[in-house]
């Protein structure tokens, strides 16, 4: 696996929660491809080297979870299936683990937790049990999710932990580090040339498109990144938004949201969007915006450390693609 770059503070904080046996569900929330899964994998690796098997970690990634499957969580493996537990529900599996590990306090990681309502017939019961496990300090529970609905529904039980895209400075440092790691030249050749691994000129092209998204920046590690390809891949997504995806939302409402985002540099307060796009029809607006968010057409999140909810472009590349599409140009000029 690629080495985690940056995120030292986030890793330290998460490890701190685990070691202190935090009594709330930790809700790791961040936009698509911000690195939630990568961070949790690193946490697992760090814990394995620090504690070995004394603190077992059970990791369930709901991306590939099928309701018909019965799962076992096993230390170090995502979604390991166990034949013998065919008839167990997820809650029974948890209880079984807790019963067998009675001296230890296992860590339960549930990744892609925004899918819980879609997958589990009784989502509230599941969260209730997880919250109780945390509260009674029988185990540590970490949920990773794209959206914030869990935070809204479970305010007192949940400790929000935001993982946003990198700031501009951190993003450039991230790209430098990734390039340095790939640099096969000998130390003296590098010393001799001593050029900036990410020049100002190049950064002016890369940043408006990739922003601080580690995944998109990852495409720019090679010396001549294909930025047009990055934008091209999301232009199609914007068109899907304008078509209104199976009637889940109205295309012209998406266009209005996109216009607002473009005008405001990529993020607008939730209440302002409701007001300007849906004319105060809060329930209709909320449901259409949630549908857009569930398809990654937009991102909805709270500003870190605050109660302000904002609507954001799905990623920096999305914002760029929105601008192109609204201007009637699908071809990026890079
Ligand atoms: N700090 C980092 N250092 C190196 N690579 C990273 C880092 N963060 C993310 N990546 C890489 O970026 C990509 C996206 O990260 P990841 O899958 O962890 O994001 P995510 O937030 O879990 O996305 P999703 O919302 O789709 O679940 C991966 O290829 C990952 O390896
Ligand atoms: Mg993930």
From TrEMBL:
<protein>
    <submittedName>
        <fullName>Uncharacterized protein</fullName>
    </submittedName>
</protein>
<dbReference type="InterPro" id="IPR051667">
    <property type="entry name" value="Archaeal_ATPase_domain"/>
</dbReference>
<dbReference type="InterPro" id="IPR027417">
    <property type="entry name" value="P-loop_NTPase"/>
</dbReference>
């Amino acid at each position: 696996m690629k080495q985690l770059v940056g995120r030292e503070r986030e890793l330290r904080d998460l490890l701190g929660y685990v070691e202190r046996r935090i009594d709330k569900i930790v809700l790791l929330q961040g936009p698509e491809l911000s690195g939630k899964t990568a961070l949790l994998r690193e946490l697992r690796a760090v814990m394995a080297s620090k504690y070995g098997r004394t603190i077992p970690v059970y990791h369930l990634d709901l991306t590939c979870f099928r309701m018909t499957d019965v799962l076992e969580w096993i230390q170090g493996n995502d979604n390991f299936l166990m034949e013998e537990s065919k008839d167990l529900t997820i809650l029974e599996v948890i209880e079984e683990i807790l019963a067998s590990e009675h001296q230890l306090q296992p860590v339960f990681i549930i990744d892609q937790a925004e899918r819980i309502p879609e997958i589990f017939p009784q989502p509230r019961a599941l969260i209730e049990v997880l919250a109780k496990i945390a509260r009674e300090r029988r185990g540590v529970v970490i949920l990773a999710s794209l959206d914030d609905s869990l935070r809204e529904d479970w305010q007192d039980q949940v400790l929000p932990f935001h993982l946003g895209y990198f700031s501009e400075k951190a993003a450039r440092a991230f790209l430098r580090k990734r390039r340095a790691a790939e640099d096969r030249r000998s130390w003296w050749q590098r010393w001799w040339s001593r050029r900036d691994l990410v020049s100002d000129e190049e950064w002016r092209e890369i940043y408006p498109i990739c922003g601080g998204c580690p995944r998109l920046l990852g495409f720019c590690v090679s010396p001549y990144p294909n930025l047009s390809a990055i934008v091209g891949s999301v232009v199609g997504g914007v068109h899907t938004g304008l078509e209104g995806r199976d009637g889940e939302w109205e295309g012209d409402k998406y266009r209005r949201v996109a216009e607002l985002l473009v005008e405001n540099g990529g993020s607008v307060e939730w209440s302002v969007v409701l007001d300007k796009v849906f004319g105060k029809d809060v329930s209709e607006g909320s449901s259409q915006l949630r549908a857009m968010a569930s398809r990654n057409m937009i991102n909805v999140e709270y500003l870190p450390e605050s109660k302000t909810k904002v609507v954001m472009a799905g990623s920096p590349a999305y914002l760029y693609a929105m601008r192109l599409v609204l201007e009637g140009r699908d071809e990026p000029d890079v």
